C-alpha cells in the first residue's frame, strides 16, 4: 500500500517570496503523483500531475513540482507567491496499475501575507 | 452532467439518526471515491468503486458506514446511528479509467454533516 507524508501542516510566506511545499511518498511500485488545491470555501481541484516522462511538471497558477524517484519526493514550488495562493494544498499518490485508489496526504495550509 | 453533484449540501441531524448522502458522478467516469474531511484535517479515504469490480471498503471507519453504487452512476453513502464524531464534510469524486485518465479526480462540493 502507498502512503503520503506532508511534513508541514502550515507554511506562512510573504507575498512575492518563493515557496516550497514538501511531499514524500512511500510505495513498492511505480506511482502517479498529484497536487490538489482547496481554496477557502471551495472544492478541491487538480493543480498538477506527474504520470510519466519529464520529472518537472508545470501546473496552473505558476506552480511546478519535481518528481524525484531516489528521494521519493514530489515537492511543490512557486518562485513568487500571491495573496490569492492562500489555500490548502494536498499531495496524492496512486500506483500505476489500473484501478488503484488515490491516497492523500494530510495537507499543507499555505498562508500568504502582505 | 458537467460536474460531480452531491446532495444534500448541508445536513444537520440528531445523534442516533441515520443519514444518506448522494453523489452523481460525471457521466462516463467509472471510478468513484468517497472521502471524509473533518474540520482542519486532511482527506480520509472511505471507499472506492471501480467499474464492476468489488469496492475497496478498507477506509470505512465502522460497520455503521456503508455505500452503494448502481452500475457506473449514482452512489449513496449511508451512516447509521450517527455519532457526533461523524460530523465532517463528505466529499465524492469521480475519474476516468484506465490510466492515464485514472485518478485525476473531479471533486464535488461536498456534503457537510453536523451531528448534534
Written description of the protein model:
The complex is a heterodimer of chains A (114) and B (116). With 114 residues, chain A is an all-beta fold. Helix content of chain A is 0%, strand content 53%. Chain A is built from no helices and twelve strands. Chain A has strands at residues 3-5, 10-14, 19-21, 24-26, 31-38, 44-50, 56-58, 64-68, 73-78, 87-95, 103-104, 108-113. The mean pLDDT of chain A is 92. By secondary structure, chain B is mainly β. Chain B is built from no helices and ten strands. In chain B, strands 2, 4, 5, 8, 9 and 10 form a six-stranded mixed sheet that branches. Chain B has a four-stranded antiparallel sheet with strand order 1-3-7-6, with no helix packed on it. The mean pLDDT of chain B is 90. The chains are: A mainly beta (114), B mainly beta (116).
List keywords for this structure.
heterodimer; A: 114 residues; mainly beta; six-stranded mixed sheet; four-stranded antiparallel sheet; 12 strands; 53% strand; B: 116 residues; 10 strands
Give the SSE layout.
The complex is a heterodimer of chains A (114) and B (116).
Chain A: E1 3-5, E2 10-14, E3 19-21, E4 24-26, E5 31-38, E6 44-50, E7 56-58, E8 64-68, E9 73-78, E10 87-95, E11 103-104, E12 108-113
Chain B: E1 5-7, E2 10-13, E3 19-24, E4 31-37, E5 43-50, E6 65-69, E7 75-79, E8 88-95, E9 106-107, E10 111-115
Parallel strand pairs in B: 2-10
Antiparallel strand pairs in B: 1-3, 3-7, 4-5, 4-8, 6-7, 8-9, 8-10
